[in-house]
Amino acid sequence: MWAGIGSMVIGRHLFDMTDGWEGSPPAGEHVVVVSHRPKPEGWHPEASYLFVDDVAKAVAKAGELAGERIVAVAAGDVGGQAFALGLVDEVAMDVVPVVFGSGKRYFGSVDAQHLLEDPHTVIRGDRVLHLRFRVRRQPSGFPPLTEE
After folding, report:
1. 75 pLDDT exceeds 60?
2. What residue stretches are annotated with the Bacterial bifunctional deaminase-reductase C-terminal domain (predicted)?
């Protein structure tokens, strides 16, 4: 999966926490940062990082940059916004045996129920379980999905 990533969409919080991986994307060749603040002045001018103030525009730009490759959207508030807008086709999760007791929601503050298909990829690693789920699409004109 990692080799297939062409671009990433991340939020400003992740960018600031990692210092944008010092201008070298951890996957793919391009990073689109969703932020109302511009790129820090003088920060790695050679890096293929764009700053966009709208999630939908960021995903569209990342798609252009990725070409036929995958656009990876980071979890958290930006991922939740992309998910709520219907811009996410698949969710990848890595489960590890640690219980923190507090923290951020995986998709930020998503305020509606969304269902995923059964995992189509399950890889058991050393103290990690890698899962990939397709997003279940709701046909237009039907009431919200519920699991019975």
Report:
1. yes
2. 31-118
